[in-house]
Each structure stands twice: as C-alpha cells, then as structure tokens.
Inverse folding.
C-alpha cells in the first residue's frame, strides 16, 4: 500500500516549529528519570526528536524528508504526552536516499550510539555489549561505503546499514531504560 | 583495472569457473524497443515492414541509446570513487553477480569475494554492497 505524500516541493523549516515544540522536553527528561516506563517513553521521544532535528537541519527539506521528520516529531509527542511508544523508528518509503538524508540518518545514529554507550557504561551484561558492538559495526560499514558522490548501489548499502542501525539503537535504548536486565 | 581482463579467476568446488571483473563504469543497459511501435507502422503493412521494424527496435535504437549514454557513464565512473566488481560465469549458463565497493577497499573485497566463490559461497563483505544477479 502506498500513500500520497501531503508535502509538495520543499518544506520550510519553520513549518515544523509547533510540532517540534511539543517534543523538546525529551532532551532533558531522558537523563533525569529513573529506569522504568517513563524513562522508556522519554528515551523513545529523545531518539525520535533527535532524528527529526537532524532531518530538518538543512536548507531545503524535500517532501520525503519532511514526511519522515513529521512522523518522528508526531511519534515523539505521543511518547511524551501519552506514553505511546512505537516499536521502531519511522521508515522511509521506497526509493534511493539522498546524501542529505543519509547524512541526517548517520548523525542520528552516531548521537544515539554515544548516548547508549554512556548509558550502558556500568552494565556487565555481555548481551548489551554485543548489541552495542553490532551498532558500531553498522557505523563502520557506513564509514567504509561513504565516498563523495556515492552511486545508487552504495547509497542503498549505506541506507540499509543506517536503517538497521537506527532500529537496533532505538530498541536497545528502550531495553536499557527498563529496570529489569533480564529483559535485555 | 581493465574492463576486458579479469582481475581474478576462481574455480568453485563444482568446477564452475568465475571471472571477477573490476570497473568504474556501469555500462548503459541494452534496452530493446517495442517492434513496430517506434516507427508507427499500420497494422495492414506489418508483414512488409516486420524485418525493418525488428532491426530498428532490436539493434538500431538500442545501439544509438547505448552510444549516446556511454560517455555519460564513463565520466560518471571517473568522477566517483565507487568500483563495480562483476563475477561472471559463462558456462554452462551465463550468470553475473554484482558488488559495489570503494577504491580504498577494492583489494580486500576482491579477496573476500574470490575466497567465497572458491568455497562455493556468495559472500557479502562489509565494505561492499552486494546487488545480486545483474539483469540486462
């Protein structure tokens, strides 16, 4: 099933202002809350608003990017306001990702990975270490394939690694926010 | 890096010989047109013009298209650091597998692919994108 994008042409950054404003608390709340359902929802909101912010951090926001950014902000607001935590990050519709989109995805994954590495610094669970290593491996794959003017094949490989890495980081963050280590 | 000389030749456990070709240029695909459609031939004259329309759609149009697009493909390949690796087997049936990597990791990726094919496996090196069997 395909959906027609509501966005036509470039979308101004200011369009996201009201939507983004509902999510900004996520940046502070995620580090302040003890492990539990509230921190889990805050982590989800943090990851999603980070993704949205990276996606719109450009001069011209194309329709596909605007669609994913709006979805990320909407989901982040839902996490903060209703505790409705989505199972994954918003995904792209079919097509090849642009360099700007890849850059935003890469920066988001790097930020989330840094947060998770710090959050798990006291964890002795080897499964968490393995999941962090898997995210590092995704970043490593991206670094190897990233060249100026990448071909569609390379962009596909980079996008595949980033989409998988973002989902892995997002789910690991949800698990780390829970108090029971057995759920990891 | 030669388009017509294999960078590696590997024999799989089942005796199939794979040749690995390295190129920076993705050749334009050979796309045939629809017979008759491109010349606007009426139905009642179809038989008379059939050989010409077949020649036109199967050879002339694809050839012109290929020649027109080739310089663009060459220039695009020269500007990019992407490298294509094609594993080709010609017998008993032609088969082409395609990977894309970057010039920095070419040798290592070639070695991994060659080792894999020698063991009868199609590997997916982390420094390359495997696109599967190439069409066209």
């Amino acid at each position: 099933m395909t959906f027609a994008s509501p966005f036509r042409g470039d979308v101004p950054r200011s369009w996201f202002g009201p939507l983004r404003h509902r999510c900004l608390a996520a940046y502070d709340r995620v580090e302040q809350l003890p492990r539990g359902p509230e921190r889990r929802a805050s982590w989800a909101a943090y990851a999603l608003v980070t993704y949205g912010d990276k996606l719109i951090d450009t001069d011209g926001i194309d329709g596909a990017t605007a669609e994913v950014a709006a979805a990320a902000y909407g989901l982040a607001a839902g996490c903060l306001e209703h505790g409705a935590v989505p199972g994954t990050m918003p995904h792209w519709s079919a097509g090849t990702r642009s360099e700007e989109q890849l850059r935003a995805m890469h920066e988001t994954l790097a930020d989330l990975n840094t947060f998770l590495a710090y959050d798990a610094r006291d964890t002795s669970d080897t499964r968490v270490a393995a999941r962090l290593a898997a995210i590092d491996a995704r970043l490593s794959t991206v670094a190897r394939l990233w060249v100026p003017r990448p071909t569609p094949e390379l962009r596909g490989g980079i996008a595949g690694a980033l989409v998988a890495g973002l989902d892995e980081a997002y789910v690991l963050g949800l698990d780390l926010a829970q108090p029971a280590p057995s759920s990891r | 890096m030669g388009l017509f000389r294999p960078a590696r030749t590997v024999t799989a456990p089942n005796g199939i010989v794979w040749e690995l070709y390295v190129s920076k240029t993705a050749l334009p695909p050979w796309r045939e047109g629809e017979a008759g459609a491109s010349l606007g031939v009426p139905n009642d004259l179809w038989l008379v013009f059939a050989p010409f329309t077949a020649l036109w759609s199967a050879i002339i149009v694809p050839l012109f298209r290929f020649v027109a697009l080739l310089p663009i493909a060459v220039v695009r390949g020269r500007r990019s650091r992407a490298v294509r690796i094609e594993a080709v087997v010609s017998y008993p049936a032609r088969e082409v597998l395609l990977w894309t990597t970057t010039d920095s990791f070419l040798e290592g990726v070639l070695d991994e692919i060659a080792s894999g094919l020698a063991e009868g496996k199609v590997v997916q090196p982390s420094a390359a994108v495997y696109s599967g069997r190439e069409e066209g």
